From TrEMBL:
Keyword NADP attributed: yes
Species, as recorded: Cimex lectularius (Bed bug)
Family membership noted in the UniProt record: Belongs to the aldo/keto reductase family.
Protein name: NADP-dependent oxidoreductase domain-containing protein
Keyword list, A-Z: NADP, Oxidoreductase
Site (Lowers pKa of active site Tyr): 94
Segments forming domain NADP-dependent oxidoreductase: 31-291
Pfam family, one: Aldo_ket_red
Amino acid sequence: MTYVGTKRCIDIAEPKKARVTLKNGEKMPVLGFGTYKMSDKHVLEAALETAISNGYRLIDTASTYDNEDLIGDALKNVLAKLQINRNELFIVSKLSPKEHGRDKVKKAVTTSLKKLQLNYLDMFLIHWPGAGNLKPNHPQNKTLRKESWHELESCVRDGLVKSIGVSNYTFPHLENLYSYCSIEPSVNQVEFHIHYRQKDDIINFCSNRNLLLQAYGSFGGEEGANVLLNDPTAVQVAQDLKVTVPQLLLRWSLQKGFAVIPKSSKPERIQENSQLNFVIPPEKMKALDGITTRKKYDWNPDDIV
């Protein structure tokens, strides 16, 4: 038996069915469907239909993806076609860096709701710890983050959002957040894969506070996909287990305690990425953990104060 999170004991023998109970009692799917850079409405609708048909129940988007309106239209059609209720889905969006601050957050949330054609969001994340118009070392970043969080807390109280969280937060960002929050974050969505493991301070902090870590970039993103998917150790382990490398990378993240949100527009890949009912045995996990390549392929928030 394998689990998500050191303190949750959520069985992930069947990841498509697995749910993790968040701090507020909401149940979040362990497997989600990412929509970054999916901007063709026909491709997006077909992808969402394939994903939902194959058991995905978490849909991840963001203001900066510029596709919330397309997702809203697509979900309306797909849910009607598949006869699935909206409350069976867990829909996540995120605050754009340019939307940080007391006067912008609620408008950002209501705009996302309107585009997605929803009455509420299951989760809303602060996408980035820095404000879009400030340099990384500008002290106002910290002030705006605090304002944004308090506004998101108000959105929870107003029923616009059920759960709130962050993305790309480092250990100092999290420490600062916990010094003033009245509603604690439920998720920290971060880059995580066999070439970039996240620092122990973040993993330990989140584990001790029952803060779920959700992995993005499991396949390396645009910059790292070719390298990551052809990593010799990963290729060999995948062959030994008779699974694909993407399946292996997703299952590895799950067994490390991270939820996952793979993205693809190809029906066969979407289906394949949901078929994770295998277990990587300890000796194979050790081989993957022993990969010496250390490379971050996406944005780096370390310099943001």
